[in-house]
Amino acid sequence: MSDMKEETMNEKHQSGVVPFFFEHSCFDKNWVLRLNSSEQINHFICLICKQVANSPVEINCPQHENMDETLIAGENCLKQFLNNNPHACPVQPHDGCEYYKMKPMQRLINDLIVMCPRQFQQDLQTLEGNEEGQTHGNTAVICSFKGKIKDLKGHLDNACTLKLSECWFKSFGCDYSCLGHGLDTHLNEKMKHHFDLEELKQLQLENEQLKMQIDLDKKNNMKKY
Ligand SMILES: [Zn+2]
Ligand SMILES: [Zn+2]
Ligand SMILES: [Zn+2]
Ligand SMILES: [Zn+2]
Asked: What is the spatial distance between Cα 9 and Cα 30, in angstroms, rounded to a whole number?
């Protein structure tokens, strides 16, 4: 049991807290609590990871059907648990754990309003920074997204201001990347640098063309004689 706990913890660590957790694993409770009261999510807590269940299932083995509380787990958490403990159930050791998907609850969870998880992550980091006596000034990019969990993926892939954007001149050799609107500033400030890169690339290209031309000429000359 304690091994299991450690594994879920490690996994959470590997994936980082941000985009990643909504694909399969349960949702960070502290993040959901930013815009919801604990009464709202009390019934959605995964009994394995203690976070808000993603794709909730109810465990309803006949072995403990007399238990009062509803036994909710995130589907992924439960599957992982059963993989690691084939002859157990998260409630008590017995074979053949039985469960079913709770579609209506899934809908409720998907409709929970949450803040941008990247912003949440940034807030946490700022908080840690402040505790160490650092101030970040007000240059930080802010994502003010508030929306349903089910709309999150679209937000993170498209509209999120905390999404990393790469410089348009990447193919010319500029490695700059930044958050949100910072790219505009970069493009304005580094115009000369980018033109130089372009020019360099152009020169390289012309150089190569010239070389090819010379090679071609050589071949043609050889043919002549
Ligand atoms: Zn879970
Ligand atoms: Zn059971
Ligand atoms: Zn965002
Ligand atoms: Zn650039």
From this structure: 15
